[in-house]
Structure formats: structure tokens, C-alpha cells
Amino acid sequence: MRFPSATRRVYGFALVWMLCGAALAADYPDRSIRLIVPAAPGGGADFVARIVGAKLTESMGQTVVVDNRAGASGTIAAESTAKAAADGYTLFMGQSTSVVIAPQLYARLGYDTLRDLTPVTLVARVPNVLVVHPGLAASSVAELIALAKARPGFLNFGSAGNGAPSHLAGEMFKTAAGVTMVHVPYKGAGLAVNALLAGEIQVMFAPSVSVLPQVKAGRLRALAVTSAVRSPAVPDLPTLWESGLPGYDISSWFGVFAPAQTPGSVIDKLYRETARVLQSPDVKERFSREGAEPVASSPAEFGAYVRSEFAKYARLVKDTGIKPD
């Protein structure tokens, strides 16, 4: 069968593209890789990126350089990645704040999450923990809800700032439980936790890494985790779903992204190498100490997860009327 010349040219271009992609994957990487992090050194995204980056350096034979670009809820880092060359040498340790929450809060961003970023793999989930001041007369989620209903507006819940996962978790709780609490935003999770310890606020939906040491020391009381399943870091702590709020599921997460149009062969290689890293016992142990759960989902699975999270936060922001600072 003889195809028309135009069709032959299309097939020819496709074949050349496939062969080029295969050759690129075979040689990739042949120089250092930049991993952009949307946070300052010492934060959760930085912690995850440095562990994964160091392991990828060992397994791929090229240095993975962590490039911290904090500010603007992580949107500076996301935009830098979106505008980088699509060759696999610029990656992004995205987190829920910059990838799926910020686009719902800011009308003008220099990137479109679903168009400009290619998912590689979900690296880790980190549930928040519902904690209260130990002086509060609530030892369970049911008792907290009863107290909030008995005294509407009496309880204050703190967060790391407007639009932070800790803020959205509180708004989701208010809606699901049908209660009224006053939101008090702080400039970072650390300041909010300090306010909770001092009794300035009574409730917080805090990152596990920020509060588990205080819970173990008896300075805060943990009532539940915000994820759909229990956290390996605190297996005896129930979920909010189990505690009478079916469907409640909100967690911080971290995942690797590349610029759009990065060859599929490179994405697949990055996924395989990162998944291998996340299965190593020492990485699992280090993540577990911080309350993080390694995941290693495929690019397709991660893409579907990002789309579902994007839609979830769009609904939540619309329903609650949350505005950025």
C-alpha cells in the first residue's frame, strides 16, 4: 500500500521524533540537573528535595542541584520551571500550595498548572494534624464539634496564612461539621504553633512535622489527622473521616514536575529512578520520622491526582470565599 506523500512526511517526522526521544533518554542525564524548590532551606519541600536529590545524584551519576526559590506561595518557583527548557535538566519539587491552591487564589499567574507543568511522580503526602491547646475541654473530634456548636465564634483556629493548607483544612472542617470558628492567619506555621502553645488560639490543623514533638511532650493534644487514611507516624490517631466527617481528606503533598513538552522517554526515566529512590529503606525511615509517607505514583496516576486536587480546591475556595493576603 502506498501512502500519499504528505502522509509519508507526517510518519517520517513522527519516527524521527521517537528516535530522538529514545536517544535522549539513553544519554540522559549527561550534565547536572536543577531541582527548583518553592521554599527556603529548612522547610518541608526543601527537606524532601534534598533527600531525593542526593539519592538521584548517586543513582543517575549526575549532580542534582537544589535551587531554593521561596516567595509568593511558591508561584515564583513554579513559573521558573514552566518557562525553562523542556529537556529534563530543570525540575520542580512542587507542593500543593503552589500547584493546586495558588491558581485558585490569584487571578494572574505566569503559568498554568495543567498546561505548563508535566507530572513526573508524587513523592510524598504529609497529613495535617488537628491539635488543640491542652486546656481546651475537648479530648475528641466529637467533643470539639459539640463545644464549637455550643459557643459559635468562641474558638479561634490558626494557620500559616490565608490560603495555606492549614487554613483550607480549617475551612473544610467548619463546612463539614457545620460549626463557626474564627480564622487567625500567621506568617508561617511556626508562629501559629507558638500562638497555640501560648493559648492565643485554641485549634490548629498543623503540619505533622510542626506539632508531633509538642504532642509527644504533652504540650498539645492531638485529636485526628486530616488525611483519608491514618498516618504511619501516628497510627493510633483516627482520621477526621473516621471521627464523623465522611469525605474529609486534605493533605499537603510534594511531587516532581518538569516543564511541558519534556520528552516522554525522559519523564519515564525520571519516574523510574525516583520511584527506586523512594523504595529505599533509609529514605522511608527518614520520611517516616517527619510524618511523611513516600508514594511514587506513575506520571499518569500523578497527573490524575493533580487534576482531582485542582478541582477539589477550586470548589473549596469558591464555597468558602477565601481571599489571598
Describe this structure in words.
By secondary structure, the chain is of the alpha/beta class. The protein has helices at 5-27, 44-60, 75-82, 96-105, 113-116, 141-150, 165-177, 189-197, 208-216, 264-278, 281-289, 299-320, and strands spanning 33-37, 64-68, 90-95, 117-132, 156-159, 182-185, 203-207, 221-225, 251-259, 293-294. Strands 1, 2, 3, 4, 5, 6, 7, 8, 9 and 10 form a ten-stranded mixed β-sheet that branches. It folds into two domains: 5-126 and 252-320, Bordetella uptake gene, domain 1 (D-Maltodextrin-Binding Protein, domain 2, 3-Layer(aba) Sandwich); 127-225, Periplasmic binding protein-like II (D-Maltodextrin-Binding Protein, domain 2).
What's the helix and strand layout?
Elements (H helix, E strand, L loop, with lengths): L4 H23 L5 E5 L6 H17 L3 E5 L6 H8 L7 E6 H10 L7 H4 E16 L8 H10 L5 E4 L5 H13 L4 E4 L3 H9 L5 E5 H9 L4 E5 L25 E9 L4 H15 L2 H9 L3 E2 L4 H22 L5
Helix pairs in contact: 1-10, 2-10, 4-12
Look at the structure and give the CATH class of the largest domain: Alpha Beta
**Low-pLDDT windows of residues:** none
Give the fraction of residues assigned to helices.
Answer: 40-55%
Number of domains: 2
Mean pLDDT: 90
CATH superfamily of the largest domain: Bordetella uptake gene, domain 1
* N-to-C span: 64 Å
CATH third-tier fold name of the largest domain: D-Maltodextrin-Binding Protein, domain 2
Q: Beta-strand level of the residues, as a percent range? A: 15-25%
Number of strands: 10
- In DSSP terms (H or I, runs of 4 or more residues), the helix count works out at 12
Give the topology string: H per helix, E per strand. Answer: HEHEHEHHEHEHEHEHEEHHEH
CATH architectural type of the largest domain: 3-Layer(aba) Sandwich
Shape annotation: globular
The largest β sheet comes out as: 10 strands, mixed
Cα-atom radius of gyration:
22 Å
Structure classification: alpha/beta
